[in-house]
Amino acid sequence: MGTEIQFVKYQGAGNDFVLVDMREIETELNDGIRKAMCDRRFGIGADGVLVILNSAIAHFKLVYYNSDGCLSSLCGNGSRCCLAYYLSMSQCKDSSIRFECNGSIYEGGHVKENIYQLNMKDIETADIVTVDKDNFYINTGSPHHVRYVNGLHHKDIRALGLKVRTESYGKEGCNINFCEELSDGKLKVRTYERGVEDETLACGTGATAVALVTHQRLKIMKEDSINSCFSYVILMPGGTLTVKFVATAKLFSNIYLIGPALRVFTGVYNI
């Protein structure tokens, strides 16, 4: 009989994850096991694996792996799911939870009901790369390409995303976000994620990328806009995310990714 691994299935706006709390588990998961866990036909099924470890400098450490089983960068929705899990499993009364991820410390917490927020790292406006009037690049903890389109609903995101990812970003890859600006100011977004190599129902760092790029694209940046707060509603196939931030001509700060994070089920995986 194989080793049993306890897991929890979480989703944030349809972006789903297998969460494994390894703080008291000595068994190691390799790339093959994580990939098998994410398989939607022969495994649990997920866009990625969230591994929680002990931390000496924060409440916990998060290591994120894409559905291909390989180590990845920051996952916004996954981070919010980990915050929801940690708060549900601990007696912690802190209003803000700190966790390690990719060598940095992030903070976040509970907002209301099933809504959780993640405080992202500050980003300089100069770090947004303009490819042309409709295409941009930004790193919000993970690399993102943002392309503005019309008729988003009819686009073949998998084919288009793979084309941009392969032709423009090579082996390392990039997440490709397709955005349509709606008349009410909301942004409709669909994302092709590297490592998943397909469209996902939502992407947190992608929603953040779209909000910041859109803000700069609309040329709202002014020298006298210090401490001006802005909010963008991002409509993704799996649900709605909100991105709030303070913007000046040179810096995006106090960036918050806000949205749902829900436990779907718990289970045991045999390896």
From TrEMBL:
Pfam families: DAP_epimerase. SUPFAM superfamilies: Diaminopimelate epimerase-like. One of its GO terms (molecular function) is diaminopimelate epimerase activity. Keywords: Isomerase. GO terms for biological process: lysine biosynthetic process via diaminopimelate. Coiled coil: none annotated. InterPro entries: DAP_epimerase_DapF. GO terms for cellular component: cytosol. NCBIfam families: DapF (TIGR00652). PANTHER family: DIAMINOPIMELATE EPIMERASE, DIAMINOPIMELATE EPIMERASE, CHLOROPLASTIC. Belongs to the diaminopimelate epimerase family. This is Diaminopimelate epimerase. It comes from Lottia gigantea (Giant owl limpet). The lineage of its organism: Eukaryota, Metazoa, Spiralia, Lophotrochozoa, Mollusca.
